[in-house]
Amino acid sequence: MILRNGNIFLLQTKGSSYFMQVLPSGHIEHIHYGASLISDMQYEKFMKNESAEEGLLSDMAKVLEIKHKNEGGNMVVYSKESYPLCLEVMPLEMSGFGKGDIREPLVELTFADGSSTCDFLFESAEISDELGSLETLPSSYDDLGKGAESAGEEDKAAPWEKDHAQQLTITLKDTGYDIRLKMIYKVYPECDTITRSAVLINDGDARVKVDRLLSNQIDFQQSGYQLTSFHGRWADEMGQTVSVCNAGKVVNEELAAGESGSRSNPFTMVSMPDTTETAGDCYGFNLVYSGNHYSSLSSNGTFLSRFVSGIQPTGFEWLLEAGEKFEAPEAVMTYSGRGFGGMSRSMHDFVRKHIVRGVWRDKERPILINNWEATYFNFNQNSLLKIAKEASKAGIELFVLDDGWFGKRNDDHAGLGDWIVNTKKLPDGLGGLAEKINAMGMKFGLWVEPEMVNEDSDLFRAHPEWAVRIPGRSHSVGRTQMILDLTRTDVQDYIIDALSKVFSSANISYIKWDMNRIFSDRFSLELPAERMKEFQHRYYIGLYRIMGTLTKKFPEILFEGCSAGGNRFDLGILSFFPQIWASDDTDAVCRMDIQRGYSYGYPANTQGAHVSAVPNHQTLHTVPLETRFSVAAFGCFGYELNLGELSEQQRKQVADQVEFYKKWRKVFQFGDFYRLDKYRFMVVSKDKSAAVALIFQKESRPNNDYLALKTMGLDEDAVYEVANRQVSVNIKAFGSLINTMAPIHVKQDGIIHGIIARHYKMNGEKDEAVATGSMLNSCGVRLNPDYGGTGYGEDTRMFRTGDARLYVFARVE
Fold first, then answer.
1. 795 catalytic, yes or no?
2. Which residue out of 514, 570, 593, 672 is catalytically annotated?
3. Which of 23, 153, 386, 550 is least enclosed, having the fewest CB within 10 Å?
4. What is the C-alpha separation between 580 and 600, in angstroms, rounded?
5. At how many degrees (to 10) do helices 381-394 and 648-670 cross?
6. Model confidence at 153: pLDDT above 90
């Protein structure tokens, strides 16, 4: 809901308020963003347009506005007419250099006369029930109607459930030049989320150089906030880092990689140091963008804090011609007074319903098997069909053919760009292979890397000018490949045409879209020298055009993004592809931390997660098959190994895992996510009728008889049946301890030991309980004891370092 009383604006969600007003000078004062300023009753009255209540807005503004009555020492007064206004001490909606605000700016421009002073003042505002879209970049949307009202349940619904998304557009005009700045706000009441974007419009006759145009600026009226950001590298993404900003500046950025980045994800959080998972103010921020990004939290000497985010200014420049406009990416923000967990669940709801789109938005994702780690480049049609046959027996629903199916692609030195099937490997082509896979009861999927080209390829030999490189200079490569120049429309058209032919050549249900290197030697033969700093942003405008065209042309295909794992895990990609491969690291122990990091800003059903072979191909770590499954289940689930090389017992275990996941898939993929502690997750269905929890044993210790599982999110008034996922135990896991029971001496790992293990199956512990949601949320359920070295029985848990357990909760109706 958006309310306006003159030039006072309140953007209201179910649990937050965003409050601002236009000052007499024309600047917009940012008064408040955070906890709701109005009650449910007032919300209801506002929705009914009771104008008498709207008068409260001016009274509220007087209570909260900055009482700035005197000129600040060693500060600049904005103007004689506005004396004693000093912008440096004002919380503002936007800021530029030149008129006294010396803090981090939203916008930096250089005009034709060389001036860089920006002086944007309020011109107009418009509230609309229709949400607009950016023309060059993806943006959020709303197709939820009016919630419960549209379902005929208006009287039963909470006020915000009867509300719908709205848009506020505020137009500012520079006092010295013919240029306008539109600030666009979208309000999504049901998920406590507000978005912002900025559009510059050059109404003058002269060119303007855009040095910086960020997307978001939030001024907080105190210092001491902490910025939580997520950093890493290839195969080790989303490590959580916390930095307190009492003064100065803390920055989260992707400076030059050209992608949103495994090194620094664009999602950040701002909170006070005492905020916890369940309590305290927490703000979540993100960008609907896939290129270099920048965000910072700063605090000045007046104890104000400022958060800004948007396109990375370093290396960026845009020449805005007369009559043209430039769009900054949309920024996303959500607030919760219920700590990091409350913020995360609001952000998850927003991403699921207002970023992800298409037929797969609300559909359960299929269980897949990918051949990459099973075969790498060394495969043929028969070897693929053997893997597919075993996958079909296990109940897996989708077979994905990874890299190596096209051109002369027998390693990573050749073939990229030549999207023609290699008939030596696949004599029946993609169509014939897909038919055989379909006949086994599975769908067929394919890997592509369309943004890349190898020098050893027919495409490069035909169009060397399409590769990104500086003429006459040596070029830096990554994975022996070069990047195609997507700033060029002819390159965009080639990719669209080539992939359209591939996608139409077989019954393809899934596409994995990869991008395996960062940028270097940025240069386009089609851009003049003065515009070369526009290259990176123009690249993403081109990429989004390609993705948008293909996803509309093939709406039934499930697309999964990938960029050397999680190197481009962002809301820009999720605007086209419903899910993204979270990391090339499939080690379950590493994935616990990686997926936990993602969980702060991204829902589980946007994260690709697979079970792979051991020793793990990235870490050489050996983790039990059940642990690998338990962790991967909290994502878009699949396998990435050769099932035919597993033992008969392991294949049965895989089939059991697939059956279990199908039963609980809706909860895993669409449930509310809770971080119970560092090595425990939980998902709860929206109606709170079912839940699944994970306990991971980071380090086993003896004599642990006190383990309890304390839940979150269950219905306090409901009664639940609780049970663990019971797993079998291989007698070999006890090693030589078998001799404490065997009538003869058994050599560990010998022939007799193997025979006993094949024919004697031990069931793991069985934990069952019935309890109220209130009891489970407040106290938890006490679990059976771990093995402690003094004996093992049917109620004893074998819970070694690296083991995991899943527990399911079903409401008793």
1. no
2. 514
3. 153
4. 16
5. 70
6. no
